[in-house]
Amino acid sequence: MQFMETDYDYISRLSAEEGIFFYEQEYLEASDQKLTFADNCSALTGIGSLPYNPNTASEADTYCINNFRRSVRIRPSEVVTQDYTFTAPNWQAQYQEQPSKMKYQHDLYKIFDYPGRFKDEQHGADFAKYQIEGWRNNADVVAGRSNTPELSPGVCFALTNHPREDLNVNWQVVSSEMSGDQPQAWIGNEGQGTTLVNEFEVIPSTQTWRSMPHPKPRVDGPQTAIVTGPPGEEIFCDEHGRVRVKFAWDRYNKADNYSSCWIRVSQAWAGTGFGNIAVPRVGQEVIVDFLNGDPDQPIITGRTYHATNRAPGGLPGTKTQMAIRSQTYKGDGYNELMFEDATGNQLLSMQAQKDMKTKVLNDQALTVDRHRVKTIKGNEINTIKGYRTKIVTGNETNAIEGFQGSTVKVGQSAAVQGDVAQLTGGTHTSLAVKIVTIGSGELIRLECGESALELHASGAINLKGKSLNVTIEGNGVINTLGGVLGLNPSSPGSPASAPGESYKESIQNSIDGIFNKESE
């Protein structure tokens, strides 16, 4: 990423990282000038040979080299680069490189570079190699002087006639500085000639020159940006939850799915398969920081509200509330977990915009110190695969407006310490395949209108009715042991009392009184 640097500085830095050098070929016509990029010395141009002649004047017509001084310098002996990438967090990501030749120096001068600005093995190995070659680009160098303008960076030549035979080899020019003088242009110096001095540096032609690493611009601090995405999309991310953004200073890119590189998002908690995840949505403002100040390694560290993207609720009126509220994707509504901390009005509120699922892998305990209100507007299904115990220390009232059914496979028992009252507005049917037992310690009474039957604990049985119809299809036996069977006696015993003809209406009124009260 180009940040706070000129185009030339940007190209120079990237070229140095990738082991590329460049040089300009000058021509008389501007349209003929060329800028050449290369990554190996084999691409250089040769101009033949030049003789060494220290006694020749600079204005001589014959091109030569009149000064050629070699120097060997102490430079770093090893480069170790290291980096990190979240796509391979367990990768060691460390590479080291030493030069093939080191003259007259120890191998103790190491450079450790972190971050090494690489994210894969090939770049890691290459960058270490390019760096050591860059740091040692002038470890073995020759400074010279010549009168030829042909010695410019990117040119190779063969030196001849030097008294040191080891210098009569091929060289490549890595820098040159030319100065010329035309004294005859001044009045009184018409007889003097034009001179040219070319101060240059060369290295062996078999050595590929690399630039030393260029310092990378650093971002001073965090910046704000707006999350972007393709038209019509509200959430745009990749498999790592990264998003794209548009910075306020970006004058060229549109606010779409190509506005920036993918940027990682810091989360409150991040573990292997667990933690917190909240992907910033398109249009939200985020805070972007940069790892080690590197503009090529942005990371979103926070989000912030602004004038058109306000917080839920209405601040400062809801300043006592803390909320986690989502937004329905391409729709209205939200899920929310809200905490109200106002003294005397403390509240924990939860809203599910549609469905809600809760799973407890072991026990669940619920304690309500006061009241509990539960409203279900649809259906409720409870499945209990074990035992169920229900304890109500006070009163319990069940109101069912529809039908109630109960199925018990094994058995059923009910124990009531006080009284039991049951009202049925229709027909009451009780059937048993085997035995039906109705027992009482004092009295069993059956009554209906003008009829009544009483069974007393003393053994007395009273039956009262307007008429009696008994049909026995087999034998009939009436046995009075030790007593008298009287038919229409003059002094009959006290009959059972019957409720009378209004008994049905009385029962119906009781039913209506209960259900009409519940409907009010």
Automatic annotation (TrEMBL):
This is Uncharacterized protein. Belongs to the VgrG protein family. Keywords: Plasmid. InterPro entries: Gp5/Vgr_OB, Gp5_Vgr_C, T6SS_RhsGE_Vgr_subset, T6SS_Vgr_RhsGE, T6SS_VgrG/RHS, Vgr_OB-fold_dom_sf. Residues 490-520 are annotated as: Disordered. It holds the Pfam family Phage_base_V. The keyword NAD does not apply. NCBIfam families: vgr_GE, VI_Rhs_Vgr. It comes from the Bacteria. SUPFAM superfamilies: gp5 N-terminal domain-like (SSF69255), Phage fibre proteins (SSF69349), Phage tail proteins (SSF69279). Residues 323-427 form the Gp5/Type VI secretion system Vgr C-terminal trimerisation domain. Residues 239-305 form the Gp5/Type VI secretion system Vgr protein OB-fold domain. Residues 490-500 have a biased composition (Low complexity).
